[in-house]
TrEMBL record, chain A:
Protein name: F-box domain-containing protein
Organism: Centaurea solstitialis
Domain F-box: 9-55
InterPro entries documented for this protein: F-box-assoc_dom_typ3, F-box-assoc_interact_dom, F-box-like_dom_sf, F-box_dom, SCF_F-box_component
Protein origin, superkingdom: Eukaryota
From TrEMBL, chain B:
Organism: Centaurea solstitialis (yellow star-thistle)
Pfam families hit by this protein: Skp1, Skp1_POZ
Similarity comment text for this entry: Belongs to the SKP1 family.
Protein's name according to its UniProt entry: SKP1-like protein
Source organism superkingdom: Eukaryota
PANTHER family recorded: SKP1 (PTHR11165)
Keywords in alphabetical order: Ubl conjugation pathway
GO biological process, one term: protein ubiquitination
Length: 381, 146
């Protein structure tokens, strides 16, 4: 083969972008954030939405070494647990809550509202004022949301999710008011793209009540997984019958509410919670003195498609409380307050060496570059 | 029936024989065989002979399926030099050999993740077009990541 012309020999033969992106989607988000300084074309490649999506897709689906972020644990503050490596809590060196002043303070002021695609939405209460933040722990970036337009509410309930239709992340807020003793709920949506809250016309079904005592639970389950497919959910009860429950779904793209019936009629002896299993909405229903059933909705929105997926008969529902499912479909629950994980494939339970409180939350850690260029990054102020 | 053999030709015109049923682990070769029977020589104008020899060695492996994962990891580990790995990854991409491509790219990613910016530039053959001022500006903007 003829040697290349001399003027080409001195320049470096560039690697094709296709090869570069195949390598770089395998590099952790934080390292990639630093690599933005390497060169302008590389910065452009790393900022492409398609690259960020491929990177995310890979970290969700090739997550062999799953890390769980455990919040409101009894012993410590924010911690990580690693099912494959160690039953002990690990103090993370990569996750640091973005509000410095509150790290040392009482943790009751911190609530998780949801997590999707590596972004975590959480809330701090400071002197009766809510601070809502969207936070990406992989790249230590966070965005503080503006104060909602409607204030003076009695209760709030928040959900956080991804709207694939508009490629947007949204926070949905139900704000409950009371006028002449008649309660009503207003719905406000924050769009990350628009950067503001908007009150929407859609009303929350008037005959249903959100359990506001669970105001901040994400998706009612405690493993934040709701909101990944463009919808967020609330488990609600009927106005005239506290034990008659139904699901209210909010479509993030259409900004519409709908109701989905449950497969089991709730009586006083059942405790229900929503979760996500393998990308599908699931209902964890625990019977007093009996087992815990897991129902899966096979066809979204069709209440006829609920199917009993699994029955955890080995644990009495009295001393266990279901959390939900991890990204690798393992069942997380607390038994006598000890966080445990059940692998249905191996039919094995593994208990972590620590206790969790009744309001503990678990977020599967997803390494993510999503929103690598936050509009504003406030340093701890 | 005797096993059918294919001949692959590298960028530097070296010829390599490989049994067809092994060669079609490459989706690219499989498609070529399907299209025209690939009776003669298959030219691979982007793959040099050293890299092609490695690819052939990989395709010829005699591994039980359950050991395959470990084998491919070890295979790329033993070729831990970044330039070799890049050639191998590029060839695996072109030839569409998924496991080899995954492993080679993963190995490069593992190696570069602890590199300094200058080392990353050298490894990935990227020219520095940033002035020191620009580099500092990015560093300041993204100081949370450093």
């Amino acid at each position: 083969m003829a040697p290349p012309p001399p003027q080409l020999r001195t320049t470096i033969e560039k690697l094709p972008d296709h090869l570069l992106s195949n390598i770089l989607i395998r590099v952790p988000a934080r390292t990639l954030a630093q690599m933005r300084s390497v060169s302008k074309p590389l910065n452009a490649l790393l900022s492409q939405p398609s690259f960020i999506k491929s990177h995310l897709h890979r970290s969700i689906h090739n997550n062999n070494d799953e890390i769980l972020l455990v919040f409101k644990c009894l012993l410590s503050k924010q911690v990580t647990a690693n099912p494959t490596r160690s039953p002990h809590l690990e103090l993370p060196n990569f996750i640091k809550l973005p509000v410095a002043d509150y790290e040392s303070d009482d943790y009751t002021n911190h609530e998780l509202m949801g997590a999707v695609n590596g972004l975590i939405c959480h809330l701090f209460t400071i002197d009766d004022e809510y601070l809502v933040q969207i936070w990406n722990p992989s790249i230590s970036a966070f965005l503080q949301l503006p104060i909602p337009g409607v204030t003076g509410e009695l209760e709030n309930s928040y959900r956080f999710g991804f709207d694939p239709y508009n490629d947007d992340y949204k926070v949905v807020r139900l704000a409950m008011f009371r006028e002449d003793r008649v309660p009503y709920v207003l719905v406000e949506v924050f769009s990350l793209r628009k950067g503001c809250w908007e009150l929407i016309d859609e009303r929350f079904p008037a005959h249903l009540f959100v359990r506001f005592e669970n105001v901040t639970r994400c998706g009612d389950d405690r493993v934040c997984g709701d909101g990944h497919d463009g919808r967020v959910h609330w488990l609600c009860h009927h106005e005239d019958d506290f034990y008659l429950e139904t699901i209210v779904a909010f479509d993030l793209a259409a900004e519409r509410m709908s109701e989905i019936g449950l497969p089991v009629v709730n009586k006083k002896d059942r405790r229900n919670a929503l979760g996500v299993l393998g990308g599908k909405l699931c209902l964890m229903s625990c019977l007093k003195d009996h087992e815990c059933e897991v129902w899966l909705m096979n066809e979204y929105g069709n209440a006829e498609s609920w199917a009993k997926h699994h029955v955890f008969s080995q644990f009495s529902a009295n001393n266990m409380s279901p959390f939900g499912f991890t990204l690798s479909n393992e069942f997380l629950f607390a038994r006598f307050e000890v966080l445990s994980i059940y692998d249905p494939a191996a039919a094995k339970v593994k208990s972590f060496m620590f206790k969790v409180g009744p309001d503990a939350k678990v977020v599967p850690y997803v390494d993510s570059l999503v929103w690598i260029t936050p509009d504003k990054h406030k340093n701890k102020s | 029936m005797s096993k059918k053999t294919l001949t692959l030709m590298s960028k530097d015109k070296q010829l390599f024989n490989i049994e067809e049923h092994l060669a079609v682990q490459s989706v690219t070769i499989r498609n070529m065989v399907k299209e025209d029977g690939a009776s003669s020589v298959i030219p691979l104008p982007r793959v040099d002979s050293e890299t092609l020899a490695l690819v052939i060695e990989y395709l010829n492996r005699q591994q039980a399926p359950e050991e395959d994962e470990d084998y491919v990891k070890k295979f790329v580990d033993e070729r831990g030099e970044i330039p070799t790995l890049l050639e191998l990854a590029q060839a695996a991409l072109d030839l569409d050999i998924k496991k080899l491509m995954d492993a080679a790219c993963m190995k490069v990613a593992d190696l570069i993740k602890d590199f300094t910016l200058e080392e990353v530039r050298e490894a990935l053959r990227i020219e520095n077009d940033r002035t020191p001022e620009e580099e500092k500006a990015i560093r300041d903007e993204f100081q949370w990541a450093f």
